[in-house]
């Protein structure tokens, strides 16, 4: 099984994702530069956190136009799994693969913390190894994680069970405390918390490890 | 050739915490009666062409596809034909 870890100018969580897949999940990961045109041979795409293009204009706004993103769109349209974490989430909303947008935090400053989350939908291919409404703890590190969408979109997210993770407390002003959403088809996940930084108890928490394990289980089932 | 200035601001429905912080700072300076502070972005560019309608269409597409995110932002632009020396 092969995971693509995208690398943009300014990505800084790519190595963490690579480590989570290779060393913790014991699957293959490969860095794919933003200039690449193909995702052939990959089973999943991981869009890492960081500050792609220095967050110029809006976070994710320039990265959505990188050459590799045409292939990412086709990959997602084919029903294959894509995860965007932190800046990766921002990129996927800008690209239009996920609804809504990430505004600057209500507090107007960067937040670096470990926060309590609820697994709001434990039925997705990314969350099936969690219990419904399970409380987990994951690190966050963002200045623009304040999820926003219009009222109709929020209603649609609820009806379609697209809200995957919510913050237990109001962390950054996010609408309905949303921390992570999927697309309607359920094969694209975006989340502000960092599961790849929580894959070993030695480093404080391994609550994020089950997200990758769930995805690996899903891909295996799909491949049979 | 046209000079184009684009203003991008948050939609009215979107909270602007930075704008609120600036407004509070204005109050602390001792100015009263200032309200509705919103912070936005300003873009200036030159766009080639003679047909203003075509240039405006191009500018609107640029705004829709890149300069503004319609989920949270709105934009307006001013456009002015550059006088040539010929």
Automatic annotation (TrEMBL), chain B:
Catalytic activity: N(2)-formyl-N(1)-(5-phospho-beta-D-ribosyl)glycinamide + L-glutamine + ATP + H2O = 2-formamido-N(1)-(5-O-phospho-beta-D-ribosyl)acetamidine + L-glutamate + ADP + phosphate + H(+)
Broad EC category: ligase
One BP term from GO: 'de novo' IMP biosynthetic process
Pfam families per the UniProt record, alphabetical: PurS
A GO molecular-function descriptor: ATP binding
Compartment list: Cytoplasm
Functional pathway: Purine metabolism; IMP biosynthesis via de novo pathway; 5-amino-1-(5-phospho-D-ribosyl)imidazole from N(2)-formyl-N(1)-(5-phospho-D-ribosyl)glycinamide: step 1/2
Keyword ATP-binding part of the UniProt annotation: yes
GO cellular component: cytoplasm
Gene3D superfamilies per the UniProt record, alphabetical: Phosphoribosylformylglycinamidine synthase subunit PurS
EC number: 6.3.5.3
NCBIfam families associated with the record: phosphoribosylformylglycinamidine synthase subunit PurS, PRK05974.1
Quaternary structure, from the entry: Part of the FGAM synthase complex composed of 1 PurL, 1 PurQ and 2 PurS subunits.
Family to which the UniProt record says this protein belongs: Belongs to the PurS family.
Function in brief: Part of the phosphoribosylformylglycinamidine synthase complex involved in the purines biosynthetic pathway. Catalyzes the ATP-dependent conversion of formylglycinamide ribonucleotide (FGAR) and glutamine to yield formylglycinamidine ribonucleotide (FGAM) and glutamate. The FGAM synthase complex is composed of three subunits. PurQ produces an ammonia molecule by converting glutamine to glutamate. PurL transfers the ammonia molecule to FGAR to form FGAM in an ATP-dependent manner.
Name of the protein: Phosphoribosylformylglycinamidine synthase subunit PurS
Biological source species: Latilactobacillus curvatus JCM 1096 = DSM 20019
């Amino acid at each position: 099984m092969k995971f693509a870890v995208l690398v943009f100018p300014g990505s800084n969580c790519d190595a963490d994702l690579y480590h989570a897949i290779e060393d913790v999940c014991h699957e293959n990961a490969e860095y794919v530069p933003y200039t690449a045109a193909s995702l052939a041979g990959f089973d999943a795409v991981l869009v890492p956190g960081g500050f792609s293009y220095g967050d110029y204009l809006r976070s994710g706004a320039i990265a959505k136009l990188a050459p590799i993103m045409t292939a990412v769109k086709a990959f997602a349209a084919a029903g294959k799994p894509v995860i965007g974490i932190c800046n990766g989430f921002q990129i996927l909303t800008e690209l239009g693969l996920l609804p809504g947008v990430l505004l600057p935090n209500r507090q107007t400053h960067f937040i670096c913390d470990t926060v309590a989350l609820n697994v709001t939908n434990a039925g997705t291919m990314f969350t099936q190894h969690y219990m419904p409404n399970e409380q987990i703890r994951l690190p966050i590190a963002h200045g623009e994680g304040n999820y926003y969408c219009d009222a109709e979109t929020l209603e649609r997210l609820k009806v379609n069970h697209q809200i995957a993770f919510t913050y237990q407390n109001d962390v950054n002003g996010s609408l309905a405390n949303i921390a992570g959403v999927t697309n309607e088809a359920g094969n694209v996940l975006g989340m502000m918390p960092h599961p790849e930084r929580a894959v070993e108890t030695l480093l404080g928490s391994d609550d994020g490890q089950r997200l990758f394990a769930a995805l690996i289980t899903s891909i295996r089932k799909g491949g049979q | 050739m046209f000079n184009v200035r684009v203003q991008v601001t948050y939609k009215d429905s979107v909270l602007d915490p930075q704008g609120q912080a600036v407004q509070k700072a204005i109050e602390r300076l001792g100015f009263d009666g200032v309200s509705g502070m919103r912070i936005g972005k300003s873009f200036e560019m030159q766009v080639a062409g003679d047909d203003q309608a075509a240039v405006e269409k191009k500018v609107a597409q640029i705004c829709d596809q890149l300069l503004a995110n319609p989920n949270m932002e709105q934009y307006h632009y001013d456009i002015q034909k550059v006088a040539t020396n010929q």
